[in-house]
Amino acid sequence: MPDTPPDSSPPPKPSLPKRWGIGLNVVLQVILVLAIFFGVNRLSYRYHARWDLSPQQSFTLSSATLNYVSKLPKDVFIANVFARDSKIFPDVQALLEEYRINGRGRVKLRSIDPLRDIERAEELKAETGLALDQNGIVIRVGSRTRFIREEELVIRETGNQAVRAIKEFRGEDAVTSAMINLIEGGERKFYLVLGKGARTETALTDVMAALGGLGRQQNFQLLPLNLADISRVPEDADGLLLIGLRYDLSEREVEMLKAYWESKRAGLLVMLDPAGETPRLHAFLGINGVTPREDRVLYAESTGTGTRKEFSVQAIFDNESSITQPLAASTVTMPGQSQSLDVRFDDEYLLNQNITVRALIGASDRYWGEKNYLEELPLVDEEDTKAPIFLAASVERGSVADERLRMDTCRMVVVGNASMLDKKTALGVNRDFVAGCLNWILNREKLSGAPPKQKHSYRIQLNPRQNELIFWITTIAMPGLVLGLGMMVWASRRAA
User: Which residue ranges traverse the bilayer (predicted)?
Assistant: First the structure.
């Protein structure tokens, strides 16, 4: 058969429906891509997570503030009234954004630059009645309003210069304290009992400074009180603080203390000085289920270099009490000397009086309560107290199982150590424990946890040699390295 010549006719043109199909497919793909894009953005806006990767967690609210903000009983409006060129504007904005995110819809945040958003600033002035003539934060709860000035948010370096550098940023302290004040309707009051001696003047100064700092954070006033000058505990006292008393209470003062404790609402924090002579105070505590022992908690052993006697006690927190539960993962060091406490959990008299006693801090197993602590090498014998050794306990009178009905209970915390707030030896966890005790006494379980920590500013001092080294690395070495790598890649491609 002869060869059939190849068909040289042009291929048929695509039909019109096929073109429309391709175009429709492209349109659908574009629509799908846009839908995915906007959908993902929408989801990321509503459901997102943030991580604070700074070493000190500088951009994360403290656990106490998080607990409080997550359980706010009222709506809170916050306005960030800061000029954008302020040095602390980024810190303030980041801080307030954390309140908004963790407020579970209760915290409303607005940022207003008074130099650019003049209309909105005037509206806020009309709403609040504040002058707003300087940078600050406006917090409003219902009809109550508080304006926190810029200088209340920072601590500056001392000196005579016109513009002093910022040393610390304490914005969380100020905002949380103002929020508590507005919601509760005023500051709470703790009275520190004076006139009964102290270990040293420095120790008393450290205690007052530490408690004053906690008061700024937790919205309470610290006021001095001399029991010899009064006939009854002030009615506005939310709590009495008996810290490191060296001399005992008189019979009249003990009767005042009993009358206060038997009132509808009372709070006591007792931090005992083991060297103090306070038998009447001990008897009052013993009636309520916590009896201080006449010993010292220590650890002693004989070593090749001599006798080792350790009074500083390593201890652990109870993991069930609302005071210490947030700190249960931490260990605590009780500095100075401590005395053990006889804690009566199931005493029939206490049960009849509706008094609940709970241990808060226990010493590690190697420690014991030594009666003859002045000996060169104390040894455990029958008269000493063996494990478990309790160093702190809580007492609650009138407690019930339902937390909602516990607002009128009387609460007391007893600690067998008066050195926990000493400036030179105190750790952060000691301060956190005392803060937890004070908030528990005030029925503020929502503020349980570690209180805010100040955000410090640090300076790196470089000598001329270090400055010169940084200059050569950043301006010559690093750009030269990049240029060299680029030239090597170019040369290799030319050769290929």
Answer: 20-40, 469-491
311/334 Cα distance (integer angstroms): 9
Amino acid code (one letter) for 413: V
Strands 188-194 and 239-243: parallel
Evaluate whether 239 touches 190 at the Cβ level (below 8 Å).
yes
The Cα 472–Cα 450 span in angstroms is 45
pLDDT of 224 higher than 70: yes
On the question of pLDDT at 481 being above 60, the answer is: yes
Name residue 428's amino acid: G
In whole angstroms, give the CA distance from residue 311 to residue 337: 6
Distance in angstroms (rounded) separating the CA atoms of residues 321 and 358: 8
Q: Which two tokens stand for residue 170?
A: 């304490």
State both tokens at 484: 């060299």
Q: What was the pLDDT predicted at 22?
A: 79
**Peptide bond before 90: cis, by omega within 30 degrees of 0?**
no
User: Using CA atoms, how far apart are residues 405 and 399, in angstroms rounded to an integer?
Assistant: 8
Name, in order, each residue with C-beta under 8 angstroms of 364's C-beta and a sequence gap of 6 or more.
313, 314, 315, 316
Q: Which residues contact 195 (CB under 8 A, 6 or more apart)?
A: 226, 227, 228
Name the residue among 120, 123, 122, 103 with its Cα closest to residue 111. 120
The residue behind tokens 């104390």 is 378
Residue range 410-453, pLDDT digits in tens: 999 999 999 999 988 877 888 889 988 998 998 887 666 555 56
CA-CA distance, 381 to 384, in Å (whole number)? Answer: 6
